[in-house]
Design a protein that fits this description.
The complex is a heterodimer of chains A (about 170) and B (about 180). With about 170 residues, chain A is α+β, with helices and mostly antiparallel strands. Chain A has one domain (about 10-160): Peptide Deformylase, CATH 3.90.45. Chain A has helices at about 25-40, 135-145, and strands spanning about 45-50, 60, 80-90, 95-100, 100-110, 115-120, 125-130, 155. In chain A, the strands form two sheets. A five-stranded antiparallel beta sheet of chain A has the order 1-2-3-6-7. Chain B is an alpha+beta fold and about 180 residues long. Chain B has two domains: about 1-80, Alpha-Beta Plaits; about 90-175, 2-Layer Sandwich (Alpha-Beta Plaits). Helices cover about 25% and strands about 40% of the residues of chain B. In chain B, the strands form two sheets. In chain B, strands 2-3-1-4 form a four-stranded antiparallel beta sheet, with helices on one face. In chain B, strands 6-7-5-8 form a four-stranded antiparallel beta sheet, with helices on one face. In chain B, a hairpin with a 6-residue loop joins strand 6 (about 120-130) and strand 7. The longest helix of chain B is centred in the C-terminal third of the chain and has 15 residues, at about 150-165. The two termini of chain B are about 35 Å apart. The chains are: A alpha+beta (about 170), B alpha+beta (about 180). The interface between A and B is medium-sized, with 25 and 16 residues.
Chain lengths: ~170, ~180
């Protein structure tokens, strides 16, 4: 059990590309546990990626089942992912996102509505899941962290842009 | 450090932002929050700026004269200490779209419903669209619903206004999700 500090931009670790975990050993299990503990401790958080706690390995945890929005939708509860990879994306939706590592700022980000993602789970087994709606958005957001991308890199429109005519 | 609100408006053309910010940069000003946009044919800039030494309008001297010569209106307001800090707004952010045939009072009537209930408008945009014979008014409001007020309630108030004013109004929660 260890709740870690969540790094805040401009911490340079948030802009690094993370390394795959080659051997799923005890330290990988420990990392997943730290991510879960940190996510739970953050209260309203629905996911944390390893670089957010200063660990440059490809691991994220997501759990939308306790959030106001997520619990109304189909979800997988707690998902622990090592070396996750999105295999398929479908649909397009715009979400106003915020991030624990970029406080006090939100932006409209375009995300796929439905995804298929493969990863190694907490038991060290390969798993493929189909995810949609809020959970899919959360997964895409957390996976971006593994490539050093913040939602700021994906903002698709200024909020005042909403009804400006496209020419 | 003193903070100032700087407003600049003038006929839109390329180069306004760089001209303004070059002056600020040379003076040694910091730009904190800012919002700049084209409204009608006018480019409007609103900036909260600060300077380590300047205390009032006079400190800026005639720094903005070149802008005024270029037909830009410049207005500078000295903020009271703390005036640069935004109060913590708790609650649920919601978006209200109002649109319909243009008529007087759309902004007033909708904002009054909110203001009467102490609901803070955090962003508001209006635009007149459509052609001259059939002008359509579009307004987007972002408002923070304080604890105890749900989106559904706002919908009920707006439903009444909708009928009365003959406009379309929709209300929805903005999914500002912390991830």
């Amino acid at each position: 059990m260890a709740v870690k500090d969540v790094l805040i931009y401009p911490d340079p670790l948030l802009k690094e590309v993370c390394e795959p975990i080659k051997v799923f050993d005890e330290s990988a299990g420990q990392l997943l546990q730290d991510l879960v503990d940190t996510m739970v401790d953050a209260g309203h958080s629905v996911g944390v990626a390893a670089p957010q706690i200063g660990d440059l390995r490809r691991a994220v945890v997501v759990d939308v089942s306790t959030s106001k929005l997520g619990k109304k939708q189909k979800n997988h509860g707690l998902i622990c992912m090592v070396n996750p990879e999105i295999l398929e994306r479908e649909g397009n939706t715009v979400v106003r996102e915020g991030c624990m590592s970029v406080p006090e700022y939100t932006g409209n980000v375009s995300r796929a509505e439905r995804i298929v993602v493969q990863f190694i789970n907490r038991e060290g087994q390969h798993q493929v899941i189909r995810s949609e709606d809020f959970e899919a958005i959360a997964i895409q957001h957390e996976l971006d962290h593994l490539d050093g991308k913040l939602f700021l890199d994906r903002v698709s429109s200024l909020k005042t842009d909403l009804f400006r005519r496209k020419k | 450090m003193h903070h100032f609100a700087l407003t600049i408006i003038g006929r839109d053309r390329p180069g306004i932002v760089s001209q303004v910010t070059e002056i600020l940069f040379r003076l040694g000003c910091n730009i904190a929050d800012s919002s700049c946009s084209i409204l009608g044919g006018q480019f409007s800039m609103i900036l909260i700026i600060s300077h380590p030494e300047y205390e009032n309008r006079e400190s800026f001297g005639d720094a903005f004269t070149p802008l005024e010569k270029g037909n830009l209106s410049v207005f500078l307001r000295t903020l009271m200490p703390g005036g640069e800090k935004r109060a913590e707004l708790a609650g649920e952010l919601c978006m209200i779209s109002v649109y319909g045939a243009d008529k007087p009072g759309i902004v007033y009537r909708v904002s009054k419903e909110l203001g009467n209930r102490q609901i803070n408008i955090t962003d508001l945009n209006t635009k007149l669209v459509g052609d001259e014979s059939r002008p359509v008014y579009v307004m987007m409001i972002e408002a923070m619903l304080p604890e105890g007020i749900e989106v559904e309630e706002v919908e009920v108030w707006m439903e009444a206004l909708k009928k009365e004013m003959g406009v379309d109004i929709s209300v929805r929660s903005i999914m500002a999700v912390e991830l």
